[in-house]
Write a structure and sequence with these properties.
Elements: E1 2-5, E2 21-25, H1 29-34, E3 59-63, E4 68-71, E5 74-76, H2 80-83, H3 90-96, E6 103-105, E7 107-114, E8 132-134, E9 141-143, E10 152-158, H4 159-164, H5 170-185, H6 189-194, E11 196-203, E12 214-216, H7 221-229, E13 236-238, H8 252-268
Parallel strand pairs: 5-13
Antiparallel strand pairs: 1-4, 2-3, 3-4, 6-12, 7-10, 7-11, 8-9, 9-10
This protein binds flavin-adenine dinucleotide.
Flavin-adenine dinucleotide binds next to strand 7 and helix 8.
Length: 278
């Protein structure tokens, strides 16, 4: 793609402060500027669509900083919850409705760096080789840096457990993590906190470029994926881990396989079959 303009465009304010991108098939830029949110390629009766070597319409993408890009096709790989925040031509916009049938969950991760690996010889137990710890605490899953010696513990909560605490601030999440460790190791929270050097808590549900962490399959997901993977000749392709029809959605492998499949579709004009997809 190549940038064609750097002036602000009026459609950028259309979605309540979300990262804003627009994808338009054909039509003039003036027609795009008149549209508010969803673009209808021929609604303004402007110049016909230019035809490239590929049998698809030409795409114009408008970015938040005012830049626009033109290309023969657009591949949208944003996380699932963000797809509906991008202004699309009506046919592609309608396909995005199918994302409601694909599960998408959150993850919160709490990273705590201590002065020492205080847990290694706690209570007479030799936990020097501890890697993973699974518990019933509010933050149930923890792992160490073993075999590296860094005195860091990483806490993890996902799905409904993450949803229940998603409104907490970073400081509150760190407190919650320390309280969970206190419960697991039967120690006072303040005692553990005395060893704390640095902390971070990351809630992917609050990240404006993620709005969550993983997709997962529901009974309707395969059908939804198949609908989303059809471009309907508008040269707009949806891609990414959530579009992967194999068994391991929510992984880097799934994202890669989906990307390869989409590239194959664009290069050959017919849907590709990833070696990983089943
Ligand atoms: C905490 C955590 C741990 C994980 N651990 C593992 C693991 O160990 N192994 C594993 O295989 N997978 C893991 N995953 C999952 C893995 O990260 C994802 O499955 C994978 O990154 C999905 O790739 P993707 O390209 O589909 O989407 P993403 O990697 O989410 O890429 C989407 C990109 O779109 C960008 N974007 C969003 N909105 C816009 C916009 N409007 N305009 C332009 N760009 C935009 C985002 O910034 C992002 O860079 C983990 C995920 C999380 C959250």
């Amino acid at each position: 793609m190549r940038p064609t303009r750097a002036s602000p465009a009026p459609w950028h304010s259309a979605t309540n402060g979300w990262p804003q991108t627009t994808v338009n098939t054909g039509g003039s830029r003036r027609a795009m500027a008149r549209s508010s949110s969803i673009f209808h390629p021929n609604a303004a009766g402007t110049a016909p669509l230019s035809i490239s070597a590929l049998p698809w319409r030409r795409i114009t993408v408008g970015c938040r900083d005012g830049a626009t890009f033109e290309a023969d096709a657009a591949i949208l790989t944003v996380p699932l919850p963000l797809l509906s925040k991008i202004a699309l031509p009506s046919a592609a916009h309608e396909r995005v409705a199918a994302t409601a049938d694909i599960g998408f969950g959150n993850v919160i991760k709490i990273l705590l760096r201590f002065t020492t690996k205080w847990w290694a010889d706690h209570g007479g137990r030799d936990l020097v080789d501890l890697s993973f710890l699974l518990s019933d605490a509010t933050v149930p899953t923890w792992w160490t840096q073993h075999p590296d010696e860094y005195p860091v513990l990483t806490g993890w909560l996902a799905g409904l457990k993450a949803d229940r605490v998603s409104s907490l601030s970073e400081a509150e999440l760190v407190d919650m993590g320390l309280a969970s460790l206190a419960q697991i190791f039967d120690l006072p929270s303040d005692g553990i906190r005395r060893h704390l050097v640095a902390s971070r808590a990351i809630n992917w549900g609050n990240d404006p470029f993620a709005r969550g962490a993983y997709s997962y399959a529901t009974p309707k997901t395969r059908q939804a994926q198949s609908l989303l993977r059809q471009s309907h000749g508008d040269a707009i392709f949806f891609c990414g881990e959530a579009l992967y029809a194999g068994p391991d959605m929510g992984t880097v492998e799934a994202a890669l396989a989906s990307g390869q499949e989409t590239a194959q579709t664009i290069l050959t004009g017919s849907p590709g079959t990833s070696s990983h997809a089943r």
